[in-house]
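User: I'm curious whether this sequence folds into something compact or stays loose and floppy. Could you predict its structure so I can see for myself?
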Amino acid sequence: MQLGGVGLLALAVIDSSVVPIPLPGSTDLVLLLLTGFRSSSVRSPLEYASCAFAGSVIGGYMTWAAGKKGGEAALAKLGKGRFVHRVQSEMKTHGMISVFLAALIPPPVPLMPFLLAAGALGLSQARFLASYCAGRAARYGTIAWTGYRYGRGVIGLWQKYLSAWTMPILSAYISLIVLGAGYGFWRYRQETRKHR
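Assistant: Here's the prediction. I'll summarize afterward.
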Protein backbone atom coordinates (compact mmCIF):
# COMPACT_ATOMS: atom_id res chain seq x y z
CA MET A 1 0.00 0.00 0.00
CA GLN A 2 2.89 2.37 0.71
CA LEU A 3 4.35 2.01 -2.79
CA GLY A 4 1.04 2.80 -4.47
CA GLY A 5 1.10 2.64 -8.26
CA VAL A 6 4.75 1.55 -8.50
CA GLY A 7 4.17 -1.40 -6.18
CA LEU A 8 0.98 -2.29 -8.02
CA LEU A 9 2.82 -2.25 -11.35
CA ALA A 10 5.55 -4.56 -9.99
CA LEU A 11 2.99 -6.92 -8.48
CA ALA A 12 1.07 -7.03 -11.76
CA VAL A 13 4.24 -7.95 -13.67
CA ILE A 14 4.88 -10.87 -11.32
CA ASP A 15 1.20 -11.88 -11.15
CA SER A 16 1.01 -12.22 -14.95
CA SER A 17 4.39 -13.86 -15.45
CA VAL A 18 5.55 -17.46 -15.08
CA VAL A 19 6.54 -16.80 -11.47
CA PRO A 20 3.89 -18.48 -9.30
CA ILE A 21 2.24 -16.37 -6.63
CA PRO A 22 0.41 -18.32 -3.92
CA LEU A 23 -2.53 -15.90 -4.02
CA PRO A 24 -3.98 -15.66 -7.52
CA GLY A 25 -5.69 -12.36 -8.14
CA SER A 26 -3.28 -10.42 -5.93
CA THR A 27 -3.25 -7.53 -8.38
CA ASP A 28 -7.05 -7.37 -8.27
CA LEU A 29 -7.10 -7.19 -4.49
CA VAL A 30 -4.38 -4.53 -4.24
CA LEU A 31 -6.03 -2.46 -6.98
CA LEU A 32 -9.34 -2.67 -5.15
CA LEU A 33 -7.74 -1.62 -1.86
CA LEU A 34 -5.80 1.24 -3.40
CA THR A 35 -8.82 2.67 -5.18
CA GLY A 36 -10.89 2.29 -2.02
CA PHE A 37 -8.35 3.82 0.36
CA ARG A 38 -6.55 6.40 -1.73
CA SER A 39 -8.96 7.65 -4.37
CA SER A 40 -9.83 11.27 -3.85
CA SER A 41 -10.94 11.94 -7.43
CA VAL A 42 -11.73 10.00 -10.61
CA ARG A 43 -8.11 10.48 -11.66
CA SER A 44 -6.74 8.17 -8.93
CA PRO A 45 -8.56 4.98 -10.00
CA LEU A 46 -7.55 5.66 -13.61
CA GLU A 47 -3.90 5.94 -12.59
CA TYR A 48 -4.04 2.77 -10.47
CA ALA A 49 -5.86 0.84 -13.18
CA SER A 50 -3.24 2.03 -15.69
CA CYS A 51 -0.41 0.80 -13.44
CA ALA A 52 -2.08 -2.61 -13.03
CA PHE A 53 -2.73 -2.78 -16.77
CA ALA A 54 0.84 -1.83 -17.75
CA GLY A 55 2.40 -4.31 -15.32
CA SER A 56 0.07 -7.08 -16.42
CA VAL A 57 0.83 -6.47 -20.08
CA ILE A 58 4.58 -6.63 -19.38
CA GLY A 59 4.25 -9.87 -17.39
CA GLY A 60 1.78 -11.39 -19.83
CA TYR A 61 3.97 -10.56 -22.80
CA MET A 62 6.97 -12.18 -21.09
CA THR A 63 4.90 -15.34 -20.51
CA TRP A 64 3.71 -15.37 -24.14
CA ALA A 65 7.34 -14.90 -25.29
CA ALA A 66 8.46 -17.78 -23.04
CA GLY A 67 5.79 -19.97 -24.65
CA LYS A 68 6.88 -18.88 -28.12
CA LYS A 69 10.53 -19.57 -27.34
CA GLY A 70 9.92 -22.83 -25.47
CA GLY A 71 7.17 -24.11 -27.76
CA GLU A 72 5.64 -27.43 -26.90
CA ALA A 73 8.25 -28.01 -24.17
CA ALA A 74 6.81 -25.05 -22.25
CA LEU A 75 3.37 -26.64 -22.38
CA ALA A 76 4.76 -30.04 -21.37
CA LYS A 77 6.03 -28.47 -18.12
CA LEU A 78 2.44 -27.68 -17.20
CA GLY A 79 1.66 -31.38 -17.20
CA LYS A 80 -0.22 -33.81 -19.36
CA GLY A 81 -3.59 -33.68 -17.67
CA ARG A 82 -7.00 -33.07 -19.15
CA PHE A 83 -6.80 -29.37 -18.32
CA VAL A 84 -3.63 -28.81 -20.35
CA HIS A 85 -5.11 -30.66 -23.32
CA ARG A 86 -8.24 -28.56 -23.06
CA VAL A 87 -6.22 -25.33 -22.98
CA GLN A 88 -4.33 -26.45 -26.09
CA SER A 89 -7.54 -27.38 -27.86
CA GLU A 90 -9.20 -24.07 -27.02
CA MET A 91 -6.14 -22.13 -28.10
CA LYS A 92 -5.98 -23.95 -31.45
CA THR A 93 -9.65 -23.31 -32.25
CA HIS A 94 -10.38 -19.98 -30.50
CA GLY A 95 -6.98 -18.38 -29.88
CA MET A 96 -7.88 -14.72 -29.45
CA ILE A 97 -11.13 -15.40 -27.61
CA SER A 98 -9.37 -17.80 -25.23
CA VAL A 99 -6.71 -15.23 -24.38
CA PHE A 100 -9.32 -12.48 -23.97
CA LEU A 101 -11.46 -14.57 -21.60
CA ALA A 102 -8.45 -15.77 -19.57
CA ALA A 103 -7.36 -12.14 -19.19
CA LEU A 104 -10.87 -11.02 -18.24
CA ILE A 105 -12.12 -13.74 -15.89
CA PRO A 106 -10.73 -13.64 -12.34
CA PRO A 107 -9.36 -16.66 -10.45
CA PRO A 108 -9.77 -19.60 -10.22
CA VAL A 109 -9.27 -19.51 -14.01
CA PRO A 110 -5.47 -19.78 -14.34
CA LEU A 111 -3.92 -17.26 -16.72
CA MET A 112 -0.42 -18.65 -17.25
CA PRO A 113 -1.38 -21.83 -19.21
CA PHE A 114 -3.34 -19.77 -21.71
CA LEU A 115 -0.50 -17.29 -22.20
CA LEU A 116 2.10 -20.03 -22.61
CA ALA A 117 -0.17 -21.90 -25.03
CA ALA A 118 -0.75 -18.72 -27.03
CA GLY A 119 2.99 -18.37 -27.57
CA ALA A 120 3.70 -22.06 -28.08
CA LEU A 121 0.87 -22.59 -30.55
CA GLY A 122 1.77 -19.59 -32.69
CA LEU A 123 -0.76 -16.88 -31.86
CA SER A 124 0.82 -13.81 -33.45
CA GLN A 125 2.16 -10.99 -31.30
CA ALA A 126 -0.40 -8.48 -32.62
CA ARG A 127 -3.37 -10.82 -32.08
CA PHE A 128 -2.10 -11.79 -28.64
CA LEU A 129 -1.61 -8.20 -27.52
CA ALA A 130 -4.97 -7.06 -28.92
CA SER A 131 -6.95 -9.75 -27.11
CA TYR A 132 -4.90 -9.69 -23.90
CA CYS A 133 -4.93 -5.90 -23.60
CA ALA A 134 -8.70 -5.76 -24.23
CA GLY A 135 -9.36 -8.35 -21.50
CA ARG A 136 -7.06 -6.73 -18.97
CA ALA A 137 -8.35 -3.21 -19.65
CA ALA A 138 -11.94 -4.35 -19.08
CA ARG A 139 -11.00 -6.27 -15.94
CA TYR A 140 -8.90 -3.60 -14.25
CA GLY A 141 -11.22 -0.80 -15.33
CA THR A 142 -14.15 -2.59 -13.69
CA ILE A 143 -12.19 -3.32 -10.51
CA ALA A 144 -10.95 0.28 -10.23
CA TRP A 145 -14.46 1.65 -10.76
CA THR A 146 -15.87 -0.76 -8.14
CA GLY A 147 -13.21 0.22 -5.61
CA TYR A 148 -13.76 3.91 -6.24
CA ARG A 149 -17.55 3.67 -6.13
CA TYR A 150 -18.04 1.25 -3.22
CA GLY A 151 -14.64 1.02 -1.52
CA ARG A 152 -15.14 3.66 1.15
CA GLY A 153 -18.35 2.02 2.37
CA VAL A 154 -16.71 -1.39 2.60
CA ILE A 155 -13.67 0.10 4.32
CA GLY A 156 -15.97 1.78 6.83
CA LEU A 157 -17.58 -1.58 7.64
CA TRP A 158 -14.16 -3.22 7.90
CA GLN A 159 -12.91 -0.57 10.31
CA LYS A 160 -16.04 -0.85 12.40
CA TYR A 161 -16.10 -4.62 12.77
CA LEU A 162 -12.73 -6.12 11.74
CA SER A 163 -10.07 -3.49 12.38
CA ALA A 164 -8.24 -5.69 14.89
CA TRP A 165 -7.55 -8.23 12.11
CA THR A 166 -6.09 -5.77 9.60
CA MET A 167 -2.41 -6.15 10.46
CA PRO A 168 -2.41 -9.96 10.90
CA ILE A 169 -4.22 -10.44 7.58
CA LEU A 170 -2.01 -7.95 5.77
CA SER A 171 1.16 -9.48 7.24
CA ALA A 172 0.10 -12.98 6.25
CA TYR A 173 -0.83 -11.79 2.76
CA ILE A 174 2.50 -10.02 2.18
CA SER A 175 4.42 -12.99 3.62
CA LEU A 176 2.69 -15.37 1.21
CA ILE A 177 3.46 -13.11 -1.74
CA VAL A 178 7.15 -12.84 -0.77
CA LEU A 179 7.46 -16.59 -0.15
CA GLY A 180 5.67 -17.40 -3.41
CA ALA A 181 7.84 -15.03 -5.42
CA GLY A 182 10.97 -16.45 -3.77
CA TYR A 183 9.88 -20.01 -4.50
CA GLY A 184 9.06 -19.07 -8.10
CA PHE A 185 12.47 -17.51 -8.67
CA TRP A 186 14.15 -20.53 -7.06
CA ARG A 187 12.22 -22.91 -9.36
CA TYR A 188 13.06 -20.77 -12.37
CA ARG A 189 16.77 -20.88 -11.53
CA GLN A 190 16.59 -24.65 -11.02
CA GLU A 191 14.95 -25.12 -14.42
CA THR A 192 17.44 -22.89 -16.22
CA ARG A 193 20.35 -24.79 -14.65
CA LYS A 194 18.87 -28.10 -15.86
CA HIS A 195 18.69 -26.92 -19.45
CA ARG A 196 22.26 -25.61 -19.64
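Summary: The mean pLDDT is 83. Residues 73 and 130 are 25 Å apart (CA to CA).
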